[in-house]
């Protein structure tokens, strides 16, 4: 590999305020892979390559007798990386997206270049032209900490217990935000099963939360930017005579923050119904047989009186 006197450096950091520059308290991110690829002049001393691809996954093709160059680095504990001993040429720097972060801003440093669009990964700054002995700095990559959003649902009376027709159940859906505020709206869609009827006006919502209902579907939303912590929604439903052996419902979370239920059963409730309006009576129940006997006896007595 040819060696020269140019260098290129930058930092990968947690851009907590998402302003594209590393401020006080915004820590670097270590262990991030950085690739530097480029084309340098061949034996004729002329750089023939006019442009490098913006796609960080595409291998550059060098023009004329230009020679292809590739180097790799991993950011240190402060999020910093550096390449030295570079020949003059045209380069592209590519950052592998670090786990647990959402793509943020990228900065074009002191030797120029063109950055790809935010949200496109991997992050790239291309067509960086390094002259002999250039010291290029400021090729930084800001990253946004990804919120971890979990959802759980509970009921009073507790799920699995027995309920009766006419009884009111109170449901609580908790959205827990960790690591960072949410980037988008968290949507909770709860379908009330047969035999459940929403109690009008029973919604209570956290700051930034709304709920509405259409038929048996309850939809609640938590606004983007929700702070770390637990955000609780509550509403009530009455067990109707349309209930059979059980009443069930399940909330489905959605949104750009990829909210998920804490477990397979944590977003679902079910209750066994007693005393339902259409619950069949067992024909061999002792009280049913006694009632039938009294009914038949009464009919026989009326016939005798005639």
Secondary structure elements and their pairing?
Elements: E1 6-14, E2 33-40, E3 67-74, E4 80-86, E5 89-95, E6 101-106, E7 114-115, E8 123-130, E9 135-136, E10 141-145, E11 148-156, E12 162-164, E13 168-178, E14 186-192, E15 196-198, E16 209-214, E17 217-222, E18 229-239, E19 246-254, E20 260-261, E21 268-274, H1 286-305
Parallel strand pairs: 1-9, 1-10, 11-20, 12-21
Antiparallel strand pairs: 1-4, 2-3, 2-5, 5-8, 6-10, 7-8, 11-13, 13-18, 14-17, 14-19, 15-18, 16-17, 19-21
Mind telling me the CATH class of the largest domain? Mainly Beta
- N-to-C terminal Cα separation, in Å? 120 Å
Helix and strand string, N-terminal first? EEEEEEEEEEEEEEEEEEEEEH
* Secondary-structure class: mainly beta
């Amino acid at each position: 590999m040819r060696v020269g006197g140019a260098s290129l450096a930058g930092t990968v950091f947690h851009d907590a305020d998402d302003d594209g520059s590393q401020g006080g308290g915004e820590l670097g991110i270590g262990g991030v892979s950085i690739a530097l690829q480029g084309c340098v002049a061949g034996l004729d001393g002329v750089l023939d390559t006019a442009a490098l691809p913006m796609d960080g996954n595409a291998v550059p093709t060098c023009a004329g007798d230009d020679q292809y160059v590739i180097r790799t680095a991993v950011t240190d504990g402060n999020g910093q990386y550096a390449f030295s001993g570079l020949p003059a040429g045209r380069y592209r720097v590519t950052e592998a997206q670090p786990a647990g972060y959402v793509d943020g801003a990228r900065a074009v440093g002191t030797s120029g270049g063109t950055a790809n669009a935010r949200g496109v990964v991997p992050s790239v700054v291309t067509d960086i032209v390094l002259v002999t002995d250039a010291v290029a700095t400021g090729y930084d990559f800001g990253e946004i900490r990804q919120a971890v959003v979990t959802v759980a649902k509970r009921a009073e009376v507790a799920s699995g217990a027995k309920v009766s027709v006419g009884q009111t159940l109170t449901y609580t859906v908790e959205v827990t935000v960790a690591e960072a505020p949410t980037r988008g709206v968290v949507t909770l869609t709860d379908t009330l099963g047969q035999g459940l009827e929403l109690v009008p006006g029973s919604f209570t919502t956290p700051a930034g939360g709304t709920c509405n209902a259409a038929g048996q579907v309850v939809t609640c939303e938590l606004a983007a930017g929700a702070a770390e912590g637990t955000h609780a929604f509550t509403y009530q439903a009455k067990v109707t005579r349309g209930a059979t052996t059980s009443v069930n419902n399940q909330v489905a979370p959605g949104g750009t923050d990829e909210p998920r239920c804490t477990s397979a059963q944590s977003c679902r409730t079910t209750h066994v119904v007693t005393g339902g309006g259409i619950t069949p009576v067992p024909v061999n129940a002792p009280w049913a047989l006694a009632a039938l006997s009294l009914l038949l006896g009464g009919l026989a007595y009326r016939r005798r009186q005639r």
